[in-house]
């Protein structure tokens, strides 16, 4: 990986060129524009390499990846084709260090990885659809760029508060983006998302500016481990930046439904007060639940970013922490919370690698 990472872009371009020349029938499984997809392949490999010595985390990640591939129409026979082209691309760009032993190691690694993914997909097939259709039932523009979109899935959609899913719109086939659920599971089965239209974001712009009630989108399976541990009664420190407040709201609802009286401290960060599009909902929840405290941190007024503000209110060593927002906020948030006395294993957030392409 050290050899190929500096030329990652070339490796992935060459890999997809090989794949589509040797297996033209696979081209239709991918979106017309391959930009984000190209980055995703390398990120998946880097994630696998990074967790190579942590079998539990790696297997969990790969099982999730295998289940997530069902919505693309991936079948077991596609895996050897991908493996052969991946090794073709790696051997070309790591020519300086490539030898028979390394090739054998990559074949073993790829075979193991793909078997875990294939098995997870096969097990999932017995209990879940590959994707869900969902009809937009309400579309509420909260700011010129942020919409709250509520959808009704065509079949029951089981998930946990704090998780996310992948969304495909009818306007950009096969382009999938991640969005967190903005509510805990509801008795009417509806799901909602907070979407901010970002520059050059195909899916986010379609969801904010184009989607209307009656439109049908597709959803992948739920994913993510930013969920409440109901086996303890420690307090929850929840930090949501921008639309990152969505899963935090779901976590608060989850605690409320379990009838627990655990302290929940929410820090809701935004650039300006105009960007605090969901503050009314959060303040209403605070009024209803005496165990909940909500603080809005506005960059412009506080003259500091969200993680520094959270640190200033510490120490937080008694708390379990949840972080949701832009990747930069998550990275510096993790540092700030560790400084405030929370051990890493009690700080939960979605994978920053996944978030980099989320929401576009
Ligand atoms: N599960 C998750 O983690 C979720 C993540 N998101 C992500 O959250 C982001 C929301 O975007 P916007 O609303 O435009 O947020 P934004 O860019 O306006 O930032 C919101 C807050 O985060 C803080 N922040 C931003 N960058 C920071 C940095 N580098 N270091 C420290 N603090 C920083 C700021 O203080 C600001 O108050 C998107 O990238 C979206 O993908 C959204 C929903 C769920």
UniProtKB/TrEMBL annotation:
InterPro entries: Cbr1-like_FAD-bd_dom, FAD-bd_FR_type, Flavoprot_Pyr_Nucl_cyt_Rdtase, FNR_nucleotide-bd, Globin, Globin-like_sf, Globin/Proto, MRET. Its EC number is 1.14.12.17. It is an enzyme of class 1 (oxidoreductase). Keywords: 2Fe-2S, Heme, Iron, Iron-sulfur, Metal-binding, NAD, NADP, Oxygen transport, Transport. Residues 129-229 form the FAD-binding FR-type domain. Residues 1-122 form the Globin domain. It comes from the Bacteria. It catalyses: 2 nitric oxide + NADH + 2 O2 = 2 nitrate + NAD(+) + H(+); 2 nitric oxide + NADPH + 2 O2 = 2 nitrate + NADP(+) + H(+). Transmembrane segments: none annotated. Pfam families: FAD_binding_6, Globin, NAD_binding_1. Its cofactor is heme b; FAD. In the C-terminal section; belongs to the flavoprotein pyridine nucleotide cytochrome reductase family. Belongs to the globin family. This is nitric oxide dioxygenase. It comes from Streptomyces levis. The lineage of its organism: Bacteria, Bacillati, Actinomycetota, Actinomycetes, Kitasatosporales.
